[in-house]
Design goal:
Layout lengths: L2 E10 L3 H5 L13 E9 L3 E7 L12 E5 L3 E4 L2 E3 L11 H8 L4 H6 L4 H10 L2 H17 L2 E7 L6 H14 L6 E9 L10 H18 L5 E6 L6 H13 L3 E6 L7 H8 L3 E4 L5 H10 L2 E4 L1 H7 L6 H6 L4 E3 L13 H10 L5 H8 L1 H6 L18 E4 L5 H4 L15
Parallel strand pairs: 1-4, 1-5, 6-7, 7-8, 8-9, 9-10, 10-11, 11-12, 12-13
Antiparallel strand pairs: 1-2, 2-3, 5-14
Bound molecules: zinc ion.
């Protein structure tokens, strides 16, 4: 068998215009919709042909291609979750209960809970356990339509545990139908043993952890949590510069709990994305748009933190490229359901269907510099289409958290 021909697709989203406009201000026409469409996908060569089913070229009608009837389905490019923390042990169910009863996230973190709870459990977990947990999570992401997944370390916070986390990511890469993009986030928090001497930890990240990570080629990105109680703007920029010197690309957790001004500085520095942005100001928004730094919005986290949403409309209107991601993590957003993030983006961020689809696909791939291979259903793209039931582009996220997406290749769907 040469590959699959997905036929009679009720509605097919190619994202042709989204890609042509570089993800800026996507509108409905940019989705490049085809009614009664067909897609030809080869596992080796990716997408070879897309168009109306009636125009399917003769060679793809041959028996060597497996034809799949997709009537009643809408097809999308494989989703891209460009911000996740999938390597951790344990859970934070108790913390969820405390926060829902009124405890503040920053208070819990300052008392040694929050991220540090997950750090304790992750340091105690063996490489085999971490690998098993990650494998399960990657498979879950696959069920939600994710084909490209950014995966951060950051629950180790010491050399050995950070390396172990990144090695788990490397092992899981492309093993379960999902490509993983590894990010070293040793600067996720200051570990408890370094609380009295935080500058020593910043130095350890710059001079020991990142050089070894670069040498072992364990990460493509470095990420820093820049916020009150985590890393200052100066410390964050210091770490980003060290990453850049090691030829690692950069992304930032910024303007989440308070306004620090890091969005503007990270954009000027050349970070590929600034993520969260709940408190970003106009100067930050303009800088993101001007420098083409992708604004990654994480509405699931705002929901869990009961915080007002990020200024999505303003970011888009100013010309920033806006991606949407899960921020899957055990504390502030324990869901991997990326279509549900689309639902939240419609309800809480007020985004249009075109903006949401672009945010979950092309723009997210752009933040990882993978937009030539992910984020469209056009010839040259790597992954096969994903599907939702229905014949309208909002079918993917219209129903609240319906679970895994239909798979027309499985005999039971
Ligand atoms: Zn995060």
């Amino acid at each position: 068998m040469k590959g699959h021909v997905y036929r009679k697709i009720s509605c097919l989203v190619t994202n042709e215009g989204v890609a042509a406009k570089g993800g800026v201000r996507p509108v409905a026409e940019d989705l490049g919709l085809i009614a009664q469409g067909a897609v030809v996908h080869s596992p080796k060569e990716g997408i070879l042909w897309v168009g109306p089913d009636k125009n399917l070229p003769k060679p793809f009608r041959a028996k060597a291609w497996k034809h799949v009837n997709c009537a009643g389905l809408t097809a999308y490019p494989g989703l891209v979750d460009c911000h996740t923390h999938p390597v951790f042990a344990g859970d934070r169910a108790l913390e969820f209960e405390l926060r829902m009863q009124g405890a503040k996230y920053t208070e819990i973190a300052a008392a040694g809970g929050g991220i540090l709870t997950s750090v304790k459990a992750t340091r105690l977990a063996s490489a085999a356990t971490l690998g098993k947990l990650l494998a399960h999570r990657v498979k879950t992401a696959y069920g939600f339509g994710v084909r490209l997944l950014e995966a951060k370390s950051g629950y180790g916070l010491d050399m050995a545990s950070e390396i172990r986390s990144l090695e788990a990511i490397r092992k899981a890469n492309k093993k379960y139908g999902v490509e993983l993009v590894p990010t070293c986030m040793a600067a996720h928090a200051v570990p408890p043993e370094r609380k009295e001497n935080r500058s020593a930890y910043v130095t350890e990240i710059k001079e020991k952890i990142l050089p070894l990570v670069a040498k072992k080629k364990l990460a493509e990105y470095v990420d820093v949590f820049c916020d009150a109680g985590f890393f200052s703007v100066e410390e964050s920029l210091d770490i980003l510069r060290a990453a850049h010197d090691l030829r690692l690309s950069t992304r930032v957790h910024g303007e989440e709990l308070g306004l620090t001004g890091i969005a503007q500085k990270a954009a000027e520095f050349g970070a590929h994305s600034v993520d969260h942005l709940l408190k970003v100001d106009d100067a930050g928004i303009r800088a993101l748009a001007r420098h083409g730094t992708v604004a990654v919005l994480l509405p699931g986290t705002a929901l869990y933190l009961r915080e007002p949403p990020a200024p999505a409309r303003k970011l888009i209107d100013e010309g920033a490229v806006v991606a949407l991601a899960s921020d899957f993590n055990p504390g502030t957003c324990p869901t991997q359901n990326l279509p549900f993030i689309g639902t939240l983006s419609a309800i809480h961020l007020g985004l249009t269907t075109a903006e949401i689809i672009a945010g979950l696909t092309w723009s997210a791939a752009r933040s990882l510099r993978r937009e030539s291979r992910y984020g469209t259903l056009l010839p040259g793209a790597t992954s096969a289409p994903i599907f939702a039931r229905g014949d309208h582009p909002s079918a993917l996220f219209y129903a609240l958290a319906p679970g895994a997406l239909p798979d027309p290749l499985s005999s039971t769907w």
